[in-house]
Amino acid sequence: MTAERFAQPQFLVDTAWLAARLEDPALVVLDGTTHLMPPPPSPYRVVAGRADFEAGHVPGAQFVDLDAELSDPHQAPGLHFTVPPPELFAATLGRLGVGDDTFVVCYSTANHWWATRLWWMLRVFGHDRAAVLDGGFQKWQAEKRPVATGPAHPRAEARFTPRPRPHLVAHKHDVLAAIGRPGSCILNALRPEQHAGTGGTVYGRLGRIAGSVNVPAAALVDEHNVYKPVAELRRLMAGALSHPDVITYCGGGIAASSATLVLNMLGHDRVRLYDASLSEWAPDPTLPMEGPDTPPAG
Length: 298
Known about the structure:
Helices cover about 25% and strands about 15% of the residues. The protein is built from 11 helices and 14 strands. It has helices at about 15-20, 50-55, 85-95, 115-125, 135-140, 170-180, 190-195, 230-235, 240, 255-265, 275-280; strands spanning about 10-15, 25-30, 35, 45-50, 60-65, 105, 130-135, 170, 185-190, 210, 215, 245-250, 270-275, 290. A hairpin with a 7-residue loop joins strand 3 and strand 4. Helix 4 (about 115-125) crosses helix 10.
């Protein structure tokens, strides 16, 4: 029996595909490794994974600091990683050698959702020639593929033209409007204990956005950091796929990007990511939540 295939498989590439194209001048590999320190609960500080990159990376890759280089410098206090202005995104990508015709492969040495966040931001600014490395640097190393060390070798600057797609980004008023609305699904990509409000990083009030369902981003990959088979991902996402409109969220818009990638690959084209996620929602007592102290209505 032939295995089921993704509706949009172009957003994921495997290590063999990348290894065969490392010398391609029209390809740029970006490492977006980031760490949130210390471990939960909160508060955490953001640590760019530059040290990880210099200890070992895919040959020819460039490192990008998602917090310092690809976030809005005027984001509200307490927020991290919010989508930057188009001109800032374009300047950073251009400096890294990404032009309008460049194919970008995104990966991380840490959790896979740092790579999917890069992929999602590229799509937000109109660049569809981008994919995530399935298995990330973990699989690359496990297969004993070539590894470079030290700082990245600079690439020639390129011209990146941003073409913003605001319809891919959700804001709190969009989420409020979606709660309880027929045809809408609000999907939390955090771990089950965070969804329940019984553990993990605390962003303010414990629990989840009212009415949201839980499909953890951590459950989308196997023990080797590789995305699960299409049939299994379709089963995990069955609830969301049955709704015409989906909004994904997490703590700060990072893990949610992995759920967004999977939904897009499964053929769902009306998915928005709530960029500020619980970092904005949970501290605001006027916004409805469910959790240990606020059980579901009814």
